[in-house]
Write a structure and sequence with these properties.
The chain has one domain (2-148): Gcn5-related N-acetyltransferase (GNAT) (Aminopeptidase). Helix content is 21%, strand content 37%. The protein is built from 3 helices and 7 strands, in the order E-H-E-E-E-H-E-H-E-E. It has a 7-stranded mixed β-sheet, sandwiched between helices. Strand 4, helix 2 (74-88) and strand 5 (93-99) form a beta-alpha-beta unit.
Amino acid sequence: MAVREATPADLPALRALQSLLDAPVQGLFDELPPGVTLVSTADGVPVGYSHSFTGEVAHVAELVVAPAHRREGRGRRLLCAVLVRLRREGCRVAELVVAAENASARALYEELGFEAGETLPGYYGRDGENETADGEETDRDAVRYRLTL
């Protein structure tokens, strides 16, 4: 289970993985974006990635692992590798936002030392993707997490 820096050749795989996210950053992988993009590979093919924008406060924008490779520790390894890189880049704080109902992701972040902060009501707003069984749209809350590096 290798973790490495993303390359331009990974862009098609990154776009495919990004389609698994509820709220991807539009246009993020038109080309390799600034910041830190790491991939987790299986047989040399990216099956997960994390992208972070750097700065004094780094923002972990996306973290995703293909369903067939979940529960293998890939998300944890990606996030740990990203945190090492962010420290090396001189970032002082890492933050991320996660859907309030995503218990498994929240547990991972808390295990790695992130602290839950403010709740962001309706962060995942009415965009046609959050519908109840009767077709009514719902807003989904998010929680901001922070970790001092």
